[in-house]
Amino acid sequence: xxxxxxxxxFMLLVMMGAFLPLITWVERKQAALMQDRIGANRADLGGIxxxxxxxxxxxxxxxxxxEDVVPAGANRVLHLLAPVxxxxxxxxxLAVIPFGGIYTYGETxxxxxxxxxxxxxxxxxxxxxxxxxxxxxxGWASNNNWxxxxxxxxxxxxxxxxxxxxxxVVGLFMALGTLRLPEMVYAxxxxxxxxxxxxxxxxxxxxxxxxxxxxxxxWGIFLQPFGFILFLTCIMAENKRPPFSAPEGExxxxxxxxxxxxxxxxxxxxxxxxxxxxxxxxxxxxxxxxGWSIPWLPQETLLGVLVPVAxxxxxxxxxxxLHVLTFLLKVxxxxxxxxxxxxxxPAFRYDQIMDLCWKIILPLSIANIFVTGLFILVVEGLR
Amino acid sequence: MSVTLFYVxxxxxxxxxxxxxxxxxxxxxxxxxLVGTMVALGAxxxxxxxxxxxVLQILIYAGAIVVLFLFVVMLLNLREExxxxxxxxxxxxxxxxxxxxxxxxxxxxxxxxxxxxxAVGEDFGGYRHVGLALFRDYVLAFExxxxxxLAAMVGAVIxxxxxx
Lengths: 383, 164
What we know:
The complex is a heterodimer of chains A (383) and B (164). Chain A has 383 residues and is mainly α. Helix content of chain A is 64%, strand content 4%. Chain A has 15 helices and four strands. In chain A, a hairpin with a 2-residue loop joins strand 1 and strand 2 (108-111). The A-B interface holds A 75, 78, 117-119, 122-123, 125-126, 128-130, 132-133, 136-137, 139-140, 148, 151-152, 155-156, 158-159, 162, 179 and B 28-29, 32, 35, 39, 42, 51-52, 55-56, 58-59, 62-64, 67-68, 70-71, 74-75, 126-127.
């Protein structure tokens, strides 16, 4: 029980205490960089500006002291409930994401995931499907036509992309053979010979040694490059940030489903969006970038090096720390990627979003499943 | 622990269902109560070790079907006064009597009629068993069902769009 609370606190602290405020800062600084300006640097605490790092605190203060308006004719209960509903899924998704492997200390085993459940990915999808309600309820309860339009768009967009999000990772499930996220990472904590498949086509009896040296980590992104692109697109559309920001539609429908929100309730919608960025990063890192695993250095090899040098307990702890740091580094890389996409692409029109989902991503992800199945049949396991 | 959780989720499910039925004037609130019931039912399935059904309950019913309900309700923009509840005294009386009868039947007859619960296997309710059953043991029935769904989908499109 204590172990569980500590792991949950660690995850919350890293995501909400470190990533969340930093991302609000990175968002502004990256926007400034892309648009050739200096960016937020005016928050001032006794002459200390710290390159704008005080802005997250200033934001929260501003939002907390603003008036909290519930518009006339709005459904009060639902209007107050909607921001909460939109932030909960982002937080509870963290429960199944492993931030480290399984480490043995004598008798006890330390498994660095809050909830190690066999149906981990299904849980992620189920929680993600609940996230739709935040935007839908917010728009309806505001008694404002712009809000209602925004929430209609949000519900259609999020349901559509849920379908393709599920289908785009089926190929990965086939390649890794499990839905349990810690097991998926252990399956990726290995290498495979890039040209190994030639043996199955009769070109070589066994691959020559110099060709066997060409290896890659058996990460999802190398086993399922198409799946990676499709899944990242879908899950970014689920997040409703630009370029998929039609539900908010600043240039058309004021601010979409959160037009009528002010103060910290508006802040909660933004917190949910920003929090989803590192959560998406963590999920994509776990599925496609091998989670905590260090490339070309499986856990056993690493322990084999560290334990003789540093001793049993300390060596294992060192390995644990290296793994957690690797995981966080991958999350940072994926957050950077999402930010770069967000500030590079112009926002899609609403019909373009739906076309992309049903006419491009859906057929491609079904084709991906069939090609993966054929490959597994021919090569007998991608690994 | 799991018994306590069962009572908590069962109470949520019943409260949601009652709120859905009683919210005749406010369709959206009714649909949202249905979501509460669905999520609570999903949690109860998980408590019963039927993980896959529990997750699918939330994923499909709460996450997709009720969202579509809401979508349609919002699109039609139903206002509260347009659909007043039925006011027939006889109808109310019959309804209450039927409900009380079903409740009495549940309480008196059902507990004795249920078979003894059998112990379930290690991987009961997981996606592996259901997947093997669907795609190996009953693959023909599964494929025929998918054809049926396809026909229904094409039919719905033709009904909705006069000109394709």
